[in-house]
Request: fold
Amino acid sequence: MKLEVNRHNANILRMAEQHPEILVLSADLGTSCEVKEFRQKYPDRYITTGIAEQNMVSWAAGLAREGFRPFLHTFAVFLYRRVLDQVEMSIAYPNLPVVFCGFVPGITTPGGVTHQSTNDIGVIRTVPNFAIFDIGDATEIDSVLDIAYDYNGPVFIRQLRKNVPRLFPANQPMQFNRARILRSESAADLTIFSSSICTEEAMKAAAALAGKGVKVNHLHVSTLKPFTDPQVVEACRNAKYGVITVENGTVIGGLGTCVAEVMAEKGIAKPLVKIGLRDTYAHGASKMFLLKHYGMDAMSLVQGAEKLMGKPLGITEEDIGEIRFEDFSAV
Amino acid sequence: MSKTAYTNEEIKRAAHNVRKRVLGLCIDRGGCYLTQACSSAEILNTLYMRILNLGPSLGNPDAQRFPGVPGPENMNYPKGSLYNGFDYANPDYTRDRLFFSCCHYAVVLYCSLVECGRLGEKAIEKFNVDGWNMEMIGAEHSPGFENTAGSLGQTVSIAAGTAHAYKLKGHTGRIFCMLSDGELQEGQDWECFNMAAYYNLDNFIVVADMNGQQLEGWTKDQMNNEPLIDRLRAFGWEVQECDGHDIDAITRAVDTPHPGKPLMVLCRTHPDQGMPIISPLMPKHFITVNDAVRESYTRFYENM
Reply:
């Protein structure tokens, strides 16, 4: 698995070159959100708002109304929690094409609870007109800005930064509202849906399960809204023992809830195990520690599979390997 | 077709008519935002009839059915800005724009549009009627509204963002924002004032109706905003203060040169101006007309 570096930086520069109406707005976190080079190259298109996110969101509405395409850059948590009213009334109600590039989603920051966007998907899902993209690898970073640009309305991106693995082939870009099938069985025992950084863990768990003869479907989901992909319905139906979801945030309102709603609407009566933060805020610590501590790692997924199948599968930590180290020392 | 030049007498008459029309609605409907009409009638009518450089109205003079909320399938509904002569499909960037933040004043805006011929008189019958486009608190589709201003503090930022866009694109039109003094307690207004000065938005003019009241009482008794002139100047704004019932004073204040800076015009007003029957009730956010006062209000209305 190859680690890619600063793919957002490369892609926002590419987009800026293609689309002169793109502006970057920064609430004093641009250098932490890979738009430092953008600022150097396009100083007139880099709007500093200072540490004032509410004004930034409404100001962006004014720019968008006049034909600019504002791409807001700060941490994801500052793009929904303190600015929800501005997000709804200035941007979502008039359906303006503003792109919220939210960095360090979920537990991918050591910044602690104030910096962790752990219920952003659940909150933004309730806001009409929004699309939500939850990024899982470098190939998705390479494709999401184009999808966001083409979307007719506001977009919330949970974006990854710095060292990001390329889990998916570079020539197979992310597709709007279409899950990526990573494993598929004609008569599966289990279906796993994963998103964000949890897909890397889920791929390890799925491989270990397959190694024990468990037939696993594994779908990576990056479009959380809309959530109408028929592949999801199909994969839920094709899961003898049940469905497991694993996500980088609270299990209330996010991927697990999206899947539960689909299962209920389609009358797919099977057990569902939702893995993620269990209705809790989180400690400020490394991703490696937090994934393990809150039961969001590959081993937790294996335990979910054992629960659904009603038997131990004999998979050990050694079978799965360590969680990939990531240095988050710099904010 | 709207006229472009009005005399002081005509503007004064228009302000009077707005007060009278809103009092009439107040009596008919059992209540209305009457004090806002009393405080802002000269400001709004001076803006529309003298100050703003607007093209003729492009809006339908009749009331329209609510066109639905905006969304991917509904972006081309008739916008309220059409009544100010601005059409997103065919924009004239040399003209001015007005963003209306004090959205509780919607009735005052609708009635002012009637006075300058931008909206038919009959349309007012549909004010605050279910299923029509002239809600008590308007939104993007309501005559005269550029945006959905009901949550205070946001419109000033949206207007400033628009002014910033005009600067970036070299458009010459000015961006006006009208608000009321209670809103100045919102933190977002001050984030915006900071940024508007930082980006030297000298095409941006905020006109404030300083009627000194808010929902729970006199503004000074809820949260102090003063000394506002000093505060705004410290934020880098050009600030002018005027009698908000004096047409020439409002005009002079708005005409103040403000190179490199945004301009704030503080219009000091009275929430019972021209309406002595409500003076004993001041301050009052919403005037209710019940059986006890209906007759006296009606008598006053008939003599206006």
